[in-house]
């Protein structure tokens, strides 16, 4: 396994929901109209698995995918129950994103002040300040570029074409007849 594959395996530890039960990238019919919602705020984008997938794809091309991965890892970490599990995930986040030897190091202020000793007594919000820095970096830097990118514009165009397709209109009419009778 290459280092890049190792990073992917480590990141799966944080984001099992990115793939379906068979390991394929997740995609659901509910996300078909997502692009318009993604354009309203970064928060809306990050709440939609398909939006996260497209944003990651964009950030990967910009060599800054680690930002969204760190943000997502912190969100997952907040939900972690049990001291032992929190210690394990905190160490994984530290080693993956914050350590000087991190495989996907994020660039945050105060990073050097976060030492491995804090990992022994983890709490759900221990990464919050660093997560907020990364969120703001994405919001005021890469998010606006994402909205102008081919990845976003092509996805939005495909959604609009699907919405306007004869099959979609026919299905909508059938559904309307079924539920309005």
Question: What percentage of residues falls in helices of 4 or more residues?
Answer: 55-70%
Distance between the termini: 58 Å
Could you report the average pLDDT, rounded to the nearest whole number?
80
CATH second-level architecture of the domain at 36-154: Orthogonal Bundle
Per CATH, the superfamily of the domain at 36-154 is Regulator of G-protein Signalling 4, domain 2
Rg value? 19 Å
How many β-strands, per DSSP?
A: 0
SSE string: HHHHHHHHH
Number of helices: 9
State the secondary-structure class.
Answer: mainly alpha
Oligomer state equals single chain
What general outline do the C-alpha atoms trace? elongated
* CATH class category name of the domain at 36-154: Mainly Alpha
Per the CATH scheme, the topology name of the domain at 36-154 is: Regulator of G-protein Signalling 4, domain 2
Main β-sheet description: none
Report the uncertain regions. Answer: 1-13, 15-32
Beta percentage is under 5%
